[in-house]
Each structure stands twice: as structure tokens, then as C-alpha cells.
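Researcher: Quick test of sequence recovery. C-alpha cells follow.
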């Protein structure tokens, strides 16, 4: 049978041509096989690209995280919000921990003085005030243990007013961060009787200052100068005469009365309480003071 087929192919030229074509032309894959092959090639290409992208994405992610950390560390913390402090809490902010702000209290008001580190830091002249309320020391100058207190007992209205002037200075210069529970504020942040007493003393001092100003406006201070050759000298403008007069002071008065040199017209020289400088003529408008 095979021999007859072979013989037929040999004898028939058209059959011989068809057989040759089947041998020379390779078998063509079907459309489904072509699609599967294409998908496989695409999948391989995607895997290669993904393999190259993964390290790059990882590097970008790490860079973003590091940048966020650096930005966080480089950004200074925002100002503290005012709140109520206990003495124990405030004591932690005395400069012993460099990571904490520098806080102090005056008349019960708490301030962040960190930007004044050169003055209030561990090596500063006023580091004694940190972590506490040492209101009294602002006028006494006593920076020892006994002097670093918030007790104002025995202070005059003018001295308490000086402490209030310091508190006003801190309110304009540093950040206010709350109230200290104790002598001046209760646990709810309400003023105590002691703070109300301080307010009355400050009002008295303000009234006294107005009286002193009115007195100086009426009887102006003398001109004065000092030199190594002549010592001290006071004088008044023409028609006025220098006299020693007591300052307007609050009562009851502590210690000897304060004095000043004031200029008076001739018809005012008989006013009670005026004193002439030693070795000075009664009607001289210039006197030596030493």
C-alpha cells in the first residue's frame, strides 16, 4: 500500500508539489496558542519591570520617612498652652532637665522664660527664680533659700507695686503659660484673698505715685550735678530757691522719711518742713551738697 502511494506521488507532479510544500512550510500555531504566548511574554516583561521598581520605591519611601523625622526634629515645639500648675509640677521646670522649658512664677502667674536662657539658665544670674514663685526676691534681692518665697508679709504698697511692675514686664516679654496653685490662686484658678489684698496694695501705690507726681509738678526737682573737684551741687532757675523737702510717702512709714531737693518761689519759703542746705545762703539759688 505504501509503495503504491509513493509511486503515485512520484508519477503525479501536483501531488509531488503538495508534499514538498508540507515538508518546507513549518506548522503555524493556532490563534489561541499565539495569544497565550503573547500573554506569557508580557507577564515576564511586567515581572522584570516590577523587580526594577521595587527597590526604587523602597528607597523613595525610606527617604520620605527620614525627611519627615528630620523636619519634626528641626521644628521647634509650639508655645505651651496656659493651664493650672501645682508647685510640684512647676518644680520640674527649674532648668535641671535641658529638654524642658524654663518656667517661673511671679504673683501666681507662670511664664516660659526659655528665650531668656542666658539670664535664667543654669549659669544665669536669675536662675534662682526657676521652678517656683519667688515674688518677694524681686524687691528684696535675697536669693537665698529663705528669701526665695512668695510671701509678701511686711512689704509696703510701693514694694508690692514694684513686684507687679516685674510681672507686667514678664507678660510683655515672655509667654504666659498659666496660674500656680497656692498663695495667689486656688485649684480652680480663682484669685485668693491674698491676691485681692495685693490688688488693693497696688491701687494704694498707684494713688501715692499720682500724689508724688502732683507734688513734683507743683514744686519741681532741683537741677543737680557732681564733679570730683566741686562735689555735689544743686540749683534752681532764676526766682526759685533750693530746699530739702520730704517726699510724699505712704503711711504707716517704714524707716526715716525720704527727701528730695525742690525749687520754691520766695513766698513759699515759709512752708513748714523746708530745710536749707548747710553753708548755703537763705536766698541763694545754688547750693553745695557736700
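Model:
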Amino acid at each position: 500500500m505504501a509503495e503504491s502511494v509513493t509511486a503515485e506521488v512520484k508519477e503525479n507532479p501536483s501531488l509531488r508539489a503538495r508534499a514538498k510544500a508540507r515538508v518546507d512550510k513549518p506548522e503555524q500555531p493556532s490563534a489561541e496558542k499565539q495569544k497565550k504566548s503573547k500573554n506569557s511574554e508580557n507577564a515576564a516583561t511586567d515581572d522584570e519591570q516590577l523587580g526594577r521598581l521595587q527597590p526604587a520605591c523602597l528607597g523613595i519611601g525610606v527617604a520620605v520617612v527620614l525627611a519627615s523625622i528630620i523636619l519634626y526634629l528641626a521644628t521647634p515645639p509650639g508655645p505651651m498652652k496656659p493651664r493650672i500648675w501645682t508647685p510640684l509640677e512647676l518644680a520640674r521646670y527649674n532648668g535641671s532637665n535641658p529638654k524642658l522649658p524654663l518656667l517661673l512664677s511671679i504673683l501666681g502667674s507662670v511664664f516660659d522664660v526659655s528665650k531668656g536662657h542666658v539670664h535664667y539658665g543654669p549659669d544665669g544670674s536669675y536662675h534662682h527664680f526657676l521652678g517656683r514663685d519667688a515674688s518677694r526676691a524681686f524687691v528684696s534681692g535675697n536669693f537665698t533659700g529663705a528669701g526665695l518665697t512668695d510671701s509678701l508679709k511686711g512689704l509696703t504698697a510701693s514694694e508690692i507695686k514694684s513686684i507687679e511692675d516685674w510681672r507686667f514686664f514678664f507678660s510683655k516679654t515672655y509667654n504666659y503659660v498659666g496660674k500656680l496653685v497656692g498663695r495667689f490662686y486656688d485649684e480652680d484658678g480663682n484669685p485668693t484673698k491674698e491676691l485681692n489684698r495685693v490688688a488693693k496694695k497696688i491701687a494704694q501705690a498707684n494713688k501715692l505715685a499720682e500724689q508724688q507726681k502732683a507734688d513734683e509738678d507743683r514744686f519741681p526737682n532741683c537741677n543737680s550735678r557732681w564733679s570730683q573737684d566741686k562735689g555735689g551741687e544743686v540749683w534752681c532757675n532764676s526766682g526759685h530757691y533750693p530746699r530739702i523737702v520730704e517726699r510724699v510717702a505712704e503711711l504707716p512709714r517704714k524707716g526715716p522719711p525720704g527727701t528730695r531737693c525742690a525749687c520754691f518761689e520766695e513766698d513759699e519759703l515759709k512752708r513748714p518742713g523746708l530745710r536749707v542746705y548747710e553753708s548755703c545762703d537763705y536766698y541763694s539759688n545754688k547750693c553745695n551738697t557736700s
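Residues 1-10 have pLDDT under 50 and may be disordered.
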